[in-house]
């Protein structure tokens, strides 16, 4: 850390990876606890390195300086973090002289051991904007998934049974299975469609298997609904992913102008269904249709924002399985968001944005108005 970098940070507002503190207190147990909470929260939030700057007013970012600096401060900070975080968060402390004032900076390095946990309380912390808060269960699960420790799709659904999978759908999209029941189960296990509980010697569908091949996956994954809303009227489309997309496509053909680029909309919705956070059971994938815009809203969690797409994908098993099915020409995955942008270019831009505080990923497409005008003009000319 140097003065140039410090002045750059002071130009920014507090956020997911940046926090300003007036004092650096490490004497009281309550002070140590608050310090470690902030370190863990910043470490658990993606986006590269994070910083806590001490000796600065958080609202004005005016440098006040540190009047008291604990003895052997670097060593004490490392010890406090090592004794209170699991796994330990990698940090560094720098003391900088700014004119006649001293500023302390804790650099929290990008960690590949997320999620970090506070040992004393067992809690996981995250940043919600500029504040530190406890992570809820689906946010913890998303962090585990992000770093390959847990995946929603591969978790066995123990409330279900193999009879909840559609054998017909599996055969249609995967091919004829071995006639031997044991071999069938072995193949489905290898493919990740079912999982075996070795203790009970019992097989269960995985959540990914239910999403792709379930008869009624919403019986076990109620958040796996595609909600379509127009003029204040909402409908819910259920079924497995393949049936859901086919039903959506059929309904859109009835609701949209004939010249509306349906394939572009279907691709955006396909991506939303595949890459949504299924740990988040409080929201549906939502399609809002109006004259001005069609907005596709996807439930995500703020801790994944800022992570490059090339680094990880939400629901990688679901994505890869659909890619394989596409190559077998049993299912059309889509044409890509970039191609979707091209299809809508003549009628306006495609807006793609993340809304961290709301926990959603949103794609806004041109609405119905322009396409209706074109159709009406064609009718008049004819």
Question: What are the segments in which pLDDT stays under 50 over at least 5 consecutive residues?
Answer: 301-312, 375-382
Q: Tell me the fraction of residues in β-strands, as a range.
A: 15-25%
Helical residue percent band: 25-40%
Number of strands: 16
The multimeric state of the shown protein is: single chain
> What strand line-up does the widest sheet have?
12-11-13-14-16-15
Overall 3D geometry?
A: flat
Q: Mean pLDDT score, rounded? A: 85
Look at the helices and sheets and give the structural class: alpha+beta
Q: Report the span from N to C terminus.
A: 71 Å
Largest β-sheet summary: 6 strands, mixed
Kindly describe this structure.
InterPro entries: RecG_C_sf, Schlafen_AlbA_2_dom, Schlafen_AlbA_2_dom_sf. This is DNA binding domain-containing protein. It holds the Pfam family SLFN_AlbA_2. The chain is of the alpha+beta class and 382 residues long. Helices cover 35% and strands 21% of the residues. The protein contains twelve helices and 16 strands. The strands form five sheets. It has a six-stranded mixed sheet. Strands 1-2-5-4 form a four-stranded mixed sheet, with helices on both faces. The chain is flat and about 75 Å long. The C terminus is likely disordered.
Defining key terms:
382 residues, four-stranded mixed beta sheet, single chain, alpha+beta, six-stranded mixed beta sheet, 12 helices, disordered C terminus, 35% helix
Question: In a nutshell, what does this entry contain?
Answer:
By secondary structure, the chain is α+β, with helices and mostly antiparallel strands. The chain starts with a helix and ends with a helix. It contains 12 helices and 16 strands.
């Amino acid at each position: 850390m140097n003065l140039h970098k410090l002045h750059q940070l002071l130009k920014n507002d507090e956020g997911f990876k940046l926090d300003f503190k007036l004092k650096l207190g490490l004497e009281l147990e309550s002070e140590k606890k608050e310090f470690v909470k902030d370190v863990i929260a910043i470490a658990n939030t993606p986006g590269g390195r994070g910083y806590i700057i001490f000796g600065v007013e958080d609202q004005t970012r005016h440098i006040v300086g540190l009047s008291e600096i604990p003895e052997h401060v670097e060593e004490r900070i490392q010890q406090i973090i090592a004794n209170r975080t699991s796994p330990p968060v990698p940090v560094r402390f720098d003391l900088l002289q700014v004119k006649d004032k001293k500023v302390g900076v804790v650099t929290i390095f990008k960690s590949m051991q997320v999620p970090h946990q506070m040992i004393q309380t067992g809690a996981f912390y995250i940043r919600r904007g500029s504040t530190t808060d406890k992570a809820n269960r689906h946010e913890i699960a998303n962090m585990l998934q992000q770093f390959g420790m847990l995946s929603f799709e591969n978790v066995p659904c123990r409330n279900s049974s193999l009879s909840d999978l559609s054998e017909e759908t599996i055969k249609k999209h995967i091919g004829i299975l071995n006639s031997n029941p044991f071999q069938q189960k072995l193949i489905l296990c290898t493919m990740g469609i079912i999982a075996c509980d070795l203790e009970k010697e019992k097989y269960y569908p995985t959540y990914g298997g239910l999403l792709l091949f379930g008869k009624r996956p919403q019986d076990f994954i109620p958040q796996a609904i595609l909600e379509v809303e127009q003029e204040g009227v909402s409908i819910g489309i259920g079924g497995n992913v393949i049936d859901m997309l086919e039903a959506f496509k059929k309904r859109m053909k009835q609701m949209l102008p004939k010249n509306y680029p349906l394939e572009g909309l279907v691709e955006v919705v396909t991506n939303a269904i595949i890459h949504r956070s299924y740990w988040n059971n409080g929201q549906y994938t939502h399609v809002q249709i109006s004259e001005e815009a069609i907005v596709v809203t996807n439930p995500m969690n703020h801790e994944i924002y800022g992570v490059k797409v090339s680094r990880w994908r939400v629901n990688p098993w679901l994505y890869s399985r659909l890619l394989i099915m596409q190559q077998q020409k049993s299912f059309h995955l889509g044409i890509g968001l970039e191609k979707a942008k091209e299809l809508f270019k003549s009628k306006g831009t495609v807006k793609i944005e993340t809304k961290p505080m709301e926990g959603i990923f949103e794609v806004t497409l041109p609405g119905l108005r322009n396409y209706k005008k074109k159709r009406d003009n064609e009718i008049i000319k004819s």
